[in-house]
């Protein structure tokens, strides 16, 4: 079985590391010459819309998947005429456009923040001036890790914000006054069977995910599974789908979906029986899904900008080191640390030790709420 | 950090899969053109005593280890003049010769079967004729998976047995009337700190390991750890050491050591916090050792000769599929299956399902004792 992955960054790298033990081979296509997953399979260094590269790519593989959602749907549709493409192109086109995504949520009865789609500066100024609460303007397409966003309050210079967003079509959403940000990793196989990982609580720093903590027996688990299942069934989805929510007073408000394995699921490598990477591959390759049974409290801390001292981290019981072998650069995700324990007290101690060790690096201390 | 591995079979492959997430790079040297671990690093296709290949190999790496113990000690000693070689050559030379190994056990007060070293046919016939119990003759060097062994009983044609062993120096050992065969995976780091995995019970078929089951809270755990520690301290050992014992009436009798990661430790990939492969790398690279905390009952079943139907295996809850990507051949280890559960009853059910699925393949049904 040969899997083609569009994208050869850390997600492609971790997919390959989960697949090779099962004798899955990989062909990875990425425009970046130094893509960190390239050595784990055959590497095609080309743009995602390079027709001759895509032809070569598709001839080599049995199934195609993505590690990155902003890939031209035209490319994906062309590929899907030759081999199965999972998740299906419709899932990608929906996730690529915040308006289509929000419209789908509405169709499926999944609550969202109040929003308005806006294409013109005049309409932007009119709409923002008519509201008396903080809002957030987001480009409809190609935003991630807080990019393509602007906060709007009473004293915001609206023209400057519009310019910052480069005049592209946007959504203006009411800012949600949430208690916490949570996400769920859901998996659906070719037969429509589903499994779910436990709900995770996410904290961010500078717009980038900082820490994910697993919430065992979270009261919102069922609601998150239900909403994810609605979306996956609607899209005839195959693979891992990540669904991010705001939890407001015990009510989940949809933020966005990511049609792929996700940073908030990295804890599953050591924290569950079958990681999100293994289950994504099982799903797209037509294998039975693996158990998502969870081994006590788990967390993941991102490493951004520079790697901390490895051995001090590894000296913390239950800690694991993931270094993506990327060149350090400010704001760049270079790796992550996972930690697991058998009970909450042990876990809290271990996590506190790690946060202390990361003081002085780019990671904010104390940002993992307990 | 770049690790050189002598041998690129499934053990080298699984070492690399454990190391790549930590940004360890690999150079693998193996005489087999089709060695199944070759794609996970730089591959040098050469004999283990090819001087120019070893020179090229050692120039590329920070530390050398082995996946195979029958490598010329001369080569290892030469390598160790350039970079650290772990385990140390002394451990390899001891494990390569059953007589040296037995003498070490005696020196350390570790019980063994009664044995005699024999070089000549006459002495062989004299010794065997003088004893009135079943014995086993083993070549002193290069025996594994039951190769280079002959059973001796009252009606054995001793000349034919001698010929079968090809006239090489041998040990003749009293056959042990054991209750079970067990092994322990022990790890020692550069500072002399140690960790141990739980004792495992092993069953064999046709001289090849068939099934390993973890024994949590086994009454012999402490004795196995104590004996392993004596050996590791004696050899100033660094890395994973596997120690195989016979359990006779609650007394461990040493069988042999393997100075490397071992087939009876494969369950640790899914069954513990840090697998034997990760901990071997942590030890030889000078990192702190990882937790060997064990996640409930675990087992490993070897796949020999031909692969069974994958999806039926993966449909068993808690089962994981390891396919080494090797060409099938009678008697060849092609992969393994691990299974894990949260309690003994669940585990027994899952293991029974797997054994049933493997009926009709080369694996003997019911050979995993519970």
Number of strands of chain A: 17
Average pLDDT of chain A, rounded to a whole number, is 94
User: What overall geometry of chain A do the principal axes of the alpha carbons give?
Assistant: globular
**Can you count the helices of chain A?**
12
Pair of chains with the largest interface and how many residues each contributes? A-B, 34 and 34 residues
Largest sheet data of chain A = 9 strands, antiparallel
From the coordinates shown, what is the CATH architecture of the largest domain in chain A? Answer: 2-Layer Sandwich
Give the strand content of chain A: 25-35%
Secondary-structure content class of chain A: alpha+beta
Q: Can you tell me the CATH topology of the largest domain in chain A? A: D-amino Acid Aminotransferase, Chain A, domain 1
The CATH superfamily of the largest domain in chain A appears as ATP-grasp fold, B domain
Name of the CATH class of the largest domain in chain A: Alpha Beta
Unreliable residue stretches of chain A: none
Instruction: Summarize the helix and strand pattern of chain A as letters.
Output: EHEEHEHHHEHEEHEEEEEHEEHHEHEEH
Regarding quaternary structure, how should these chains be classified?
homodimer
